[in-house]
Protein: Alpha/beta hydrolase
Organism: Streptomyces xinghaiensis
Amino acid sequence: MAGEPRLETTVHVAGGSFGGDGPDSLRNPALYIGGDEDFATANMERDYTNTDVPVWFNVLDDTDHIYATRNGRHLITAWLRWHLADEEFRRTEDFLSPDCTFCGLGEVRHKNW
């Protein structure tokens, strides 16, 4: 699915690929969201490491597998508004500046920007 050429971005919540090859088909910026109490976060971390496209990685505090979507909904919404609604200010304000809106939500990493 991630290799679908019409996709502008992908959002990966509470999981990663089991074999570690999930990022192989990514062509556009990707958002990874998991929780510090989520059993699938290790797979997501491996996928982040193997991702070559621009990527934002967030492990939310006090969040398990079920609550990752709920606790990350504001982050997901901002990400989609940036990439699908062309709200470019979100790039720095919400994500890529040192004091960004979402930089304090648990463990945050990003690369390839």
Notes: The mean pLDDT is 93. The chain is about 30% helix and 20% strand.
